Amino acid sequence: MEKKEDVYKTVNKPSPEILYKDRKSKFYAAVYPITSEDDVKPIVEELRKKYHTANHVCYAWQLGVESPTYRANDDGEPNNSAGMPIYGQIQSFDVTNVLITVTRIFGGTKLGVGGLIQAYKTAAQMALENAKIVKKTIKAQFRLQFGYPEMDIVMRIIKQKNLNIVSQKMELDCALVISVRLSESEEVFQLFDEMQHIKITQLD
């Protein structure tokens, strides 16, 4: 059975902002953790307020692991001269659930498309080098339902397999929610599924 990829790289907190300069233009770049596309707009709007003289707040983001979604935004720079070079660095560093912003304050000298691509790419790269990249594990969650007589065996397996108990309800019937590494989820599911008097269901 093929093992599922269950580790990914991301950031836990926004990186310190870095400044890259090219022919008097200033490029301020930072990396932010995001959990949905809705996180992006407030960050970009905050940067527009912070740098009210900025000409462009360009960015790229990626979300998800198995089939990631992404977006790149040039914010008025020539087509594909800003957002895609930033996104290229997200791919190069193999990170996800991140937003990288590069805020440009124009210095009076045009850089040309090639110069812009290089500047946005370099600023994004420096921001990622400055960020604290962490590895995270994707987990699957299961609900176990069983009677008191099964309590011992359930707890023994949880201990043996080093599973995490997320929540528990011990009344006439017992209900536990456990979390399992994605790569071990099928094995754990089968283990409990084969037992009598224990009901296991996967949670979304």
Automatic annotation (TrEMBL):
A GO-annotated cellular component: cytoplasm
Domain called Impact N-terminal: residue spans: 23-128
SUPFAM superfamilies linked to this entry: Ribosomal protein S5 domain 2-like
Transmembrane segments annotated in the record for this chain: none
InterPro entries, A to Z: Impact, Impact_N, Impact_N_sf, Ribosomal_Su5_D2-typ_SF
Alphabetized Gene3D superfamilies for the sequence: Impact, N-terminal domain (3.30.230.30)
One biological process term in Gene Ontology: regulation of translational initiation
Record-stated family: Belongs to the IMPACT family.
Protein name (record): YigZ family protein
Biological classification of the source: Bacteria, Pseudomonadati, Bacteroidota, Flavobacteriia, Flavobacteriales
